[in-house]
Amino acid sequence: MTTDDDNSQSKQVQNTVHGLTGGTVVQALSIDHVSVVGAAAMPTIAHLDLLAKASLHQWTAAANDRRLVHPAPLPIQWRRSSASVAGPISAAAYRRFAPLPGLAAVTDDELSEGTQDGLHRIYGGLPSGRLLLIGPPGSGKSAAAILLLLEALRYREQAIPEDQAQIPVPVLFTLHGWNPDRGDSVTDWMAAKLAETYPMFRGRAGRHIATDLLTAGRIAGFLDGLDEIPECSRPGVLNALADAPFRLVLLSRTEEAVAAAHHGPLAGAVALGLQPTQPTAAADYLLQPLVSPPPAPWQKITDHLTHQPASAVSEALSTPLALSLLRDVYGATGPVDELLDDARFPTAADIDNHLLDHAVTAAYTPRPGHPKPRYSVATAQRTLRYLATQLTEHGTRDLVWWHIPTWTTHRARSISAAVLTLLANAVLVGVSLGLPIGFELGPRAGLVVGLSAGLLLGLATAALSTVADWRGMPCVPKRLARLSYRSAPRTRGLGVAFAFSGGLLAGLFAGLVSGLASGLVAGILVGMAAGLAGLALNGISGHTEAEESSLGPAGVWCHDRNAGAVQVLASVLLTGLLATLTVRLMPGLASSLAASVASSFIVVLPVMLLVGLGAGLVGILVVKRVGPMEVGTPGSAVLDTSAAWVRISIRHKTSLRLISFLEDARRRHLLRTVGPVYQFRHATLQDRLAEVGRS
Prior knowledge:
Elements: H1 10-20, H2 24-32, H3 45-65, E1 77-80, H4 89-92, E2 113-115, H5 116-125, E3 130-135, H6 141-158, H7 161-164, E4 169-174, H8 186-197, H9 203-215, E5 219-224, H10 234-241, E6 248-253, H11 254-261, E7 270-274, H12 279-287, H13 296-307, H14 312-316, H15 320-330, H16 348-357, H17 359-363, H18 377-393, H19 410-441, H20 443-470, E8 478-480, H21 492-514, H22 516-539, E9 541-543, H23 553-585, H24 589-595, H25 597-626, H26 636-652, H27 658-667, E10 671-674, E11 677-680, H28 683-694
Parallel strand pairs: 3-6, 3-7, 4-5, 5-6
Antiparallel strand pairs: 1-2, 1-7, 8-9, 10-11
């Protein structure tokens, strides 16, 4: 489903919009600054025109990539659904929206059945402005929605200027990330999606313009993924969508739509069910990209479809998914007529499994005009089978990359976390603490003291991470956030207590070599300063919630990695400044430390280990009270996942670069993104790969 990749196309859309801004549209915008300044900026035709061009470019590219435009797409047949997903036809007759210019209100007879050609007529003339497109998996809902959206954009583009202002611009988003139970209206959520995807709506003024356009009904919402949001949220979504002040087209699988509508259907909606592809239409579709007369194997398969519509082959090739797989797997010269062998393929299920078994091979076979695959077919199959097997064993369709470490044993994960923590602290603290002491006593002394302190801190934090990993909880990705009092963590008191105890330990450590009184005073002052600074650093790193984030999985990965890099750099600078301050406050401390490093190390090591274990146990209690979203520091999710994936790659011979592989598989239409998680594009593909992977 291409609509699940709208997050990944956001950058392309932004570049497109910026490219469009070199013409007369932006020249007009720059005259009165309506798109940039003014808290009370009013919606203008220029905004709608710019949005229409960006949306047309975005979904034309998606349609070409999905081969929905060339060769000619499958003929879409629909029929008013008899499933319990909508109210009576009389509810849709209530005139909430006037027909689009040039169209008339639809009649009951027009809603009984039709084709793709009549779908825009229904969309533009339905008085309630509420259209449901439903069907079983693989029935072509996304393809129908994309083609309808492109037809609606071209209809607006061809209208006279006076009528264009009355024709809404359609945009397509997935419903992931919206939960009306939190109080967000569909208008506010759609305005946020517009601001996120299209640059002309960013900022306070742009967001205000987007809200006004939605409220005025100048933008239409094509919303996919009702069946992919949590089941408990679907009835609330249907109820909230009834209040939308703009036209709606909602996509869903039939079974999930029926379950959601059991609590109350979408008011005024008409449900159109997509019908199976007729064998004659399937035969015509398969012959279009071939020479005439076609190769003998293709002639045999199309003749069979035409003359034996009740066979296993005809039953299997009744969905757009199966037909697209057939064309990809066999190409123009493949032995496609082998599917007619009743001994090898006695049922439609056998044909489906055969096509699914070759889907990965087809996706990673080089195609003219496309980049050479970065991964071999064998590597791709091993990796995708492993992922499908793990997801199936865990009973989920969502591939959440930061949960991958929980697929490994606790022992392996704890050892990796301890080693990485120890090495990171030894290097970072060694550099930041060793430099100021090195300036006083020379590089060698600074290196010895810095590495010793880094090892001490590393052992303590390694003990902490080991206890935390014992709980088997994943590290949650972080992102940089604006620093404010409210953004500080919920454990401020605990943070201050840790800062005081850390300062006390630092004072005792310093007192061993330079006097207890002065050591305690300097240690507590520096420890409190370090603790408060640490709280500030923690305050600018917010967690990324899978249910709410609008970022794609690759974006979440980059945010966590970047947040970790920023915090590491800030921590190194902060530690260096505090070390310099301590050395200046306590003359002779540097030389005393260098002279008695070994003895201090032996005395402080047990204390630091106990502190680390205690902090880990306290952290577990805090997590049990406030939830798992506090687990991990910025960058820890990326490091934890990378370490786990290296072990998995060595053991199962999968691809070594996780995110790069997943993004490549998404571009090859084997995976899709739903918010910050990946899914197999078709559940049947996951099930088949898992079945083969377990055998």
